[in-house]
Sequence to fold (231 residues):
Amino acid sequence: MQNEYKRKNAIKFRITEKDKNIFKYNKLTNEKGEIMKETPKKLFTAYVGESQARNRYTFWAKAAKKEGYALISSVFLETANQELQHGTWFYKMLQDFKKKEKFDDMKVLPDAEFHTTLGNTIENLTSAKAGEDLEWQTLYPDIVETAEKEGYPKIAERVKAIIIAEKHHAERYGKLLKLVGDDAFFKRGKKIVWVCMECGYEVEMDELPKNWKCPSCDHPRANFRIKCEEF
Ligand SMILES: [Fe+2]
Ligand SMILES: [Fe+2]
Fold:
């Protein structure tokens, strides 16, 4: 279902026979013109995916803020920064690759999807979760498999760790998706501590009323999140 949503909202560019003549470089080749291994091409595809995700999460953070979901907005921004970290590592791994097997930047064409979702927070979270699921369940295990097969165990280990991060992203987007909409986000059915993200004020209540305002800084309910510190 999630991936179905994602597919509907993605444009997939495939290289056709005709395109091959235009681009020529549909395969990754070294300086002798020999076709290279699949690992670097997949690393580059992942780099493109991470770079796009970072920007989309930044757009969606703004949309969430406009809708009054301050916590979701901050989660999107935090995740955007984490995708920057993943993108950085995919790029770094490509650099290491280039030291051993030279290739021309312009000859690398990723087989990437280009997403276009910019909707409300429910739509954005749905798309975000679908993208993360696709990464940790399909795309990145495929890189691990390819890297292991082609003799790059260090790359495989690094990508395995990134898979754990993406799984975490998918899980938290899923949790937020369940809470968003109506008043569910601010109704928990039991007394819990809420914290104002603007000023740090705390209050223990089972539900924050719609017109709730922080007594310390006057920011509205949307700026409160559950207190979850364990230190
Ligand atoms: Fe990522
Ligand atoms: Fe992610």
